[in-house]
Amino acid sequence: MAGLEVLYAHVGSSITCSQDAVVCFVHWEMIKRGFRCIGSGDEPRSSDKKSELLPADWSSNKELYSLRYKTKDGDNQLLLKAIAVDSTLIFNLMNSSTQQVSDLTVNISDHVDADQLQTFDSVFKDEDCLSEKVRTQLLPPQDKPTGQRMERESRREGEEEEEERRREGDSDPLRIPVRHPRQGRQPDWPGPMHPFAAGGADLDPFGSRGGGGMIVDPLRSGFPRSGFDPSSGIPDILPPGAVPPGARFDPFGPVGRHRPGPDRDHMPPPGYDDMFM
């Protein structure tokens, strides 16, 4: 209850009835959660300023208390009213910007000892219960008084909802993912102004128009090449220089001077003596 005793001692001379003590307690809860009192009454005054203290005339009317608050680091204004009805005190808190209203009914005898109004150690009863009621029933939802904080929380909740929708979409087995081309790279499909561009690879097999073509050159395929260089010639088959350096070359026979003969252990194939084989 840090701070409540100092506040109670400061306004002790103004507390003459049980409802005064309850209003002082609720004011302390407002201050503790980031609000500042700017004055009493319903209408703003030129003397209004943010303060943790209660204004001088806060308890002048014992039947109707009216106090105005603003957030500590903003201009969001709230109007707090407390109406004494028999043995209860009915609180009403309205946000002037959103017109949102919350209320709380307090049974005065449950939380204040009327015979101990000038003794702080004994005046309040069941303070934790009263504090919980003020926090959950009277103060704005989620206990976020500052405008900037509410904006940040709203933005974060929106991002969390968007992330949740994205996860649900990714978990759908029937969902077709959207594919986007990489930045700086044009898609491979033909433009709408060139409807006859389809099948261009068949008409231009060497890919001179920038496409991939349809003829595979083993020397340009990107796979590792063997140590064989056709431009150096093939003994007994091609002289050196017959194949230009870097030219596409399909070997038409085994590379080497001696062609391996059949193994004596091999059986001749069927129809070996057939001259048409």
TrEMBL record:
Q: What is its main location?
A: cytoplasm
| Keyword line | Acetylation, Cytoplasm, Endoplasmic reticulum, Methylation, Phosphoprotein, Proteasome
Task: Output the Gene Ontology cellular-component terms.
Answer: endoplasmic reticulum; proteasome complex
Q: Where in the cell is the protein located?
A: Cytoplasm; Endoplasmic reticulum
Question: Which residue numbers delimit the PI31 proteasome regulator N-terminal domain?
Answer: 13-117
Keyword Secreted in the entry? The reply is no
The Swiss-Prot or TrEMBL record annotates one GO molecular function as: endopeptidase inhibitor activity
Q: Where is this region: Disordered?
A: 134-277
The family database entries (Pfam families) matched by this protein are listed as: PI31_Prot_C (PF08577), PI31_Prot_N (PF11566)
* GO BP annotation list: proteasome-mediated ubiquitin-dependent protein catabolic process
**Which residues are in the PI31 proteasome regulator C-terminal domain?**
191-254
Basic and acidic residues composition-biased segments: 149-173
Tell me, in a sentence or two, what this protein's role is.
Plays an important role in control of proteasome function. Inhibits the hydrolysis of protein and peptide substrates by the 20S proteasome. Also inhibits the activation of the proteasome by the proteasome regulatory proteins PA700 and PA28.
User: What protein family does this chain belong to?
Assistant: Belongs to the proteasome inhibitor PI31 family.
Protein name stated in the entry: Proteasome inhibitor PI31 subunit
| Species annotation | Xyrichtys novacula (Pearly razorfish)
